[in-house]
Task: structure prediction
Amino acid sequence: MDPLLTAAIVIAAPPTLVTLGYAGLCWVAPFKTCKRCAGTGQTTTRILRRPRACRRCDRGTRLRTGRRVFNYFHRLRTGAGR
Ligand SMILES: [Zn+2]
Result:
């Protein structure tokens, strides 16, 4: 086997696997638990520690970044046909 081809495969395989794995993850589980409120959907204010609705997420879950990028391009493509 060609050593250059082997080197190219060895160099290119891990990033490809990571990318495909993340794409699969975004497809299987597009939502992820919010880090700010730890999935509760509420944060406490600094003064008096009153509960407030979390501004970063919707009820404790938020869309993954990869899925948000996919949705952006999907909307661009569907919007281009009109
Ligand atoms: Zn949150």
Notes: The longest strand covers residues 31-33.
